[in-house]
Amino acid sequence: MTGQEKLTKAEEREFARELVTKIGELAASTGRKLRFMEVCGTHTVAIFRAGLRQMLPETVELVSGPGCPVCVTPDDYMDKAIAYAERDDVIIATFGDMLKVPGSKSSLNEAKTNGADIRIVYSPMDSIQIAKDNPDKKVIFLAVGFETTAPTAAATVLAAEQQGIDNLFMLSAQKLVPPVMETLLNDEEVHVDGFILPGHVSVVTGTGVYEPVITKYHVPGVVTGFEPVQILRGLYRLVQQVAKGEARVENEYTDVVKPEGNPVSMMITNQVYEPCDTGWRGMGVVPLSGLKMRAGYARFDIEQVLPIEVETVAKKTACRCGEVLRGIVTPKECPLFGKACVPTHAIGPCMVSVEGVCAAWYKYGQGRFTYGK
Prior knowledge:
The chain is an alpha/beta fold and 373 residues long. It is built from 17 helices and 11 strands. The chain folds into 3 domains: 9-69 and 181-251, Rossmann fold (3-Layer(aba) Sandwich); 71-176 and 265-305, HypD, alpha/beta domain 2 (Rossmann fold, 3-Layer(aba) Sandwich), CATH 3.40.50; 321-363, no CATH class. α12 (228-244) links the parallel β8 and β9. Keywords: Iron, Metal-binding.
């Protein structure tokens, strides 16, 4: 059965059961437990919502990696964002889920309560109008995300340049997926037999960006969509590769993801940004895993225009978000999960974002739901 066929709900459920059986048979033939990691927040939610973990045999384990952009944003970035927000001459434009992400001492939500001008936007482009309406203010967009959102941030910079807007800036924390995959594979505490590669990111980047990592570490990767059957088909391909001793990039999302990705989006991103070392929550600084503005666009980089020094204080907390993001522990192994840390009072960023592992685990009953019911 190909990925292009449209199934009824009943056919989908039956096909899912068949796939799970085949996955189990193949996994058993390897003689060991297999562990696969998704590195996409949307996949995290889709897997939990469908109860795929509960469908799979005990020989196949799914773990969540650093696929939520809000979750991987480190304390020092949040501390800088809060410091800028507290200035009288600044307006912060940001996506809503950034408000509750903790810094080392506070959050944007607390800064907003104390009078900071922080505005929720649904696109970086919305910040252009805010800048036009407030010419006496510095409008700073919090550019957080992966390869998926980098083109829109870059396009916003280009639009501001074209319109002669000189009071719009970016505080960039864009992240790149392949370098962090390599960091995970070099981590002795992390063990994965393959990756469920991100669908949305791959629409932009294409599939070739993963080849160097997959080949170097001989670990398979499959790009999948977000429907339960699409994810199960991707898992079947992963188990198949492991059973055969193979390691390559496969694409189970061919109707959307092309090998070359979206050349226009990549061109826009590369025009404005270049790779740089950057920090990830729980993993420290990962070489060439972030994006910074090129010298030609430094006038839109708030850290270049208005440098600010902040002291990031190491927090004493039982929160284990850093380990959760590396797939070393599950949320239920954190002593705060579901007790002191809940969505309405999140202590760690993995509970803040709707794409966070802890938030998904909490919302979907810690695995009590099963696919098809």
